Amino acid sequence: MRLELLTPAEMADADRLAIAEGPFDGIGLMRNAGRAVADVVLERFPAAAHVQVLVGPGNNGGDGYVAARILQESGIAVSLWASGTPREGSDAAIAAEECPLTASPLAEFEAAAGAVVVDALYGAGLSKPLSGDAARAVTLITEKKLKVVAVDLPSGVSGESGKVLGSAFRAAVTVTFACKKPGHLLLPGRDLCGDLIVADIGIRSSVLDTVAGRIFENKPPLWRDVFPKPAVDTHKYRRGHAGIFSGGPTTTGAARLSALAAARAGAGAVTVFSPGNALAVNAMHLTSIMLRKVDDIAELAAVLGEGRSSAFVLGPGFGVGEKARDFALAILAAGGRLAEAGAEGLVLDADGITAFRDAPQWLFEAAARAEAPALVLTPHEGEFVRLFPEIAGKEDLSKLGKARAAAEAAHAVIIYKGADTVIAAPDGRTAINSNGAPWLATAGSGDVLAGIVAGLIAQRMPPFEAACAAVWLHAEAGSQLGPGLIAEDLPAALPRVIKPLYLSPDAG
Ligand SMILES: NC(=O)C1=CN([C@@H]2O[C@H](COP(=O)(O)OP(=O)(O)OC[C@H]3O[C@@H](n4cnc5c(N)ncnc54)[C@H](O)[C@@H]3O)[C@@H](O)[C@H]2O)[C@@H](O)CC1
Ligand SMILES: [K+]
Question: For position 307, what pLDDT does the model report?
Fold first, then answer.
């Protein structure tokens, strides 16, 4: 399955190119699309006695006319409700002509108890909020709890952003064409789509290759080629060394969670750098993880000078303030010297992000230097607003657009966390994660994620791919553990989700 996600504009280009190159013309693609929808209705709702098909004036409606005809030919009672009429000479007008049913105005729509609804009002062409008859239909269908099969997208959901314009249908199944769109994976769109089916309607993959941009669904094929594979004759330092900074005596747990996660992600050695007054408490809870006192910038400089650690995590439980800022800037500034020894990256999380709320520019400038180690920022929504207030305030940008803009501004890989985590690189590559589980919303979960990223970067995985892989592994571990999950469980669950990546080329 393709991992590229096409925006509605890219999909419109794909339609045009496909029509020009064949083998199907516009009405041919529409007939394929409508048939795919009818097949899903018949397969998913074999006992349906009545199907109510709602059609809009554009090509989404065209797909609906085709589906209505095929469903009626299959012997099901079909009623058709139209908002507007297709433009003369359009493919949708041909589909409407070929449909033997007479449409009633959507204004007169009544939801029939027990009916299945095909929503073919608006798809990729949604251009304004749902209102009037369409919004009324949403209310009636929702009140009667009718099962909805959405064509391309639930009407009202933006294919670009996943946002709801006005109101939107909640579908049991959504049938989209050729490949997924960002709005199918970003919330609330993902939730409103129900089960998502991607139907092949005869658009050649060469056409999709031509139009596809740099947005992907985050799955193992996106990064498996560069996932670390230890050589037979490797030793621990060749597997990378991750350094995790601990907070003071009462906030050390977060760093240990990160450290364990980095080790479980495959880093050959992991050290917790701890303030002197927290050494005892850290020592009491560490076994394979090493421990070293780092109290101030001089001791940090000594560590950096040795050039052992190739990836760092700074932030979990660290405390917000000058020390966090100074440490982060020192690591980013040491890049040139460290590069020889192999320093690859700094994962700045939690307090490490918040510490720069009043001076984000210092961080971004430090990360912009050519020799600086890669910077990975892992903000959840609140932290994102603190670091990128202007970008966060842009209502017209999707979560994907915001992550992309932030990555460019910060010269950093951004992991914009949430139930629909987006990962963006400064070069414009963006991935949307879709295997998340609500069980991951628990204290310490983010510390584990930061540790996995660092563990992978320490093994020389490129930072964007490391971030994508970490988000996927973290989510997969969370999904497998399920209810009752606490953050401590996540590192221990990693071997189970990593092993299949080595065994099967099709895992995930
Ligand atoms: N030949 C093609 O281009 C193909 C297109 N396909 C279908 O075509 C769809 C896209 O078609 P279109 O670009 O015609 O777009 P739509 O059919 O999604 O909507 C466009 C029409 O709806 C109106 N509209 C949009 N939002 C509205 C709102 N909130 N209230 C009232 N009116 C609104 C627009 O003014 C326009 O007339 C896809 O979603 C897919 O279902 C498929 O049939 C595959 C082939
Ligand atoms: K629709």
Answer: 84
Question: Which atom of ligand 1 sits closest to the CA of residue 124?
Answer: 39
- Pick the closest to residue 194 from 218, 214, 211, 170 (CA basis): 170
Nearest by Cα to 278 from 308, 244, 303: 244
**Residue 271 neighbours by CB distance under 10 Å:** 23
Per-residue pLDDT, 341? 47
| ipTM at complex level | 0.98
Q: Give pLDDT, residue 234.
A: 73
This prediction has a pTM of 0.96
**Which stretches in the chain have pLDDT values below 70?**
237, 336-343, 504-508
Domain 220-226+234-380+412-503: CATH superfamily is Ribokinase (3.40.1190.20)
Calpha distance 412→23 (Å, rounded): 43
Residue type, 88: E
Q: Does 373 sit in the ligand 1 pocket, CB within 6 Å? A: no
64 Cβ below 6 A of ligand 1: no
Domain 8-212 has CATH 3.20.20.140: no
Ligand 1 centroid vs 161 CA: distance in angstroms? 16
